[in-house]
């Protein structure tokens, strides 16, 4: 769709050209460990406690939400502001290294983005945890996509 719409405007781009994405990662030795990090990070501190009150969770609406919580009737209720919703929407990439690689592979296959921005929880976790996340990403995930 991106290519078709850009062509209507006279721009002929390769798949992924001019595309940038922002994602969050939580990598752990297990999926449970990574999900726990997500629960304690910016998902709670930023999205649940602040941004959600301004409609940010509606960004991650799923097709099945329309039957239960129609967009025309208002924002998603707080009970729907979950880490699992972010995972299902492919915004939050979480799990062990292989889990995150599979999600990255799917992103590359679908969009092949030219730019990638990682929203990291620097300042929300102890420094050793932030370093651990950077190490996982820099040594176990990123080299596959260079």
Any idea how many domains? 1
- The geometry reads as globular
Radius of gyration: 17 Å
Summarize the helix and strand pattern as letters.
Answer: HEHHHHEHEH
Overall structural class, as computed from helix and strand content, comes to alpha/beta
Q: What can you tell me about this protein's structure?
A:
- This protein has 146 residues and is an alpha/beta fold.
- The protein has one domain.
- The chain contains seven helices and three strands; from the N terminus they run H-E-H-H-H-H-E-H-E-H.
- The chain has helices at 2-8, 31-40, 42-48, 65-68, 83-88, 97-111, 127-141; strands at 20-27, 92-95, 115-118.
- The radius of gyration is 17 Å and the shape is globular.
- The two termini are 26 Å apart.
- The mean pLDDT is 93.
Describe the structure concisely for a colleague.
With 146 residues, this protein is of the alpha/beta class. The protein has one domain. The protein has helices at 2-8, 31-40, 42-48, 65-68, 83-88, 97-111, 127-141, and strands at 20-27, 92-95, 115-118.
């Amino acid at each position: 769709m991106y290519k078709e719409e850009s062509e209507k405007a006279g721009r002929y781009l390769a798949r992924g050209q001019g595309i940038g994405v922002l994602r969050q990662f939580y990598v752990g030795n297990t999926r449970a460990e990574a999900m726990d990090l997500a629960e304690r990070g910016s998902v709670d501190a930023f999205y649940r406690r602040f941004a959600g009150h301004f409609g940010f969770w509606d960004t991650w609406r799923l097709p099945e939400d329309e039957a239960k919580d129609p967009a025309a009737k208002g924002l998603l209720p707080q009970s729907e502001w979950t880490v699992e919703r972010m995972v299902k929407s492919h915004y939050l990439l979480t799990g062990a290294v292989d889990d995150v690689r599979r999600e990255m592979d799917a992103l590359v296959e679908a969009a092949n983005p030219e730019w990638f921005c990682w929203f990291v929880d620097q300042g929300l976790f102890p420094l050793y945890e932030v370093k651990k996340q950077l190490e996982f990403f820099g040594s176990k995930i990123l080299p596959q996509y260079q």
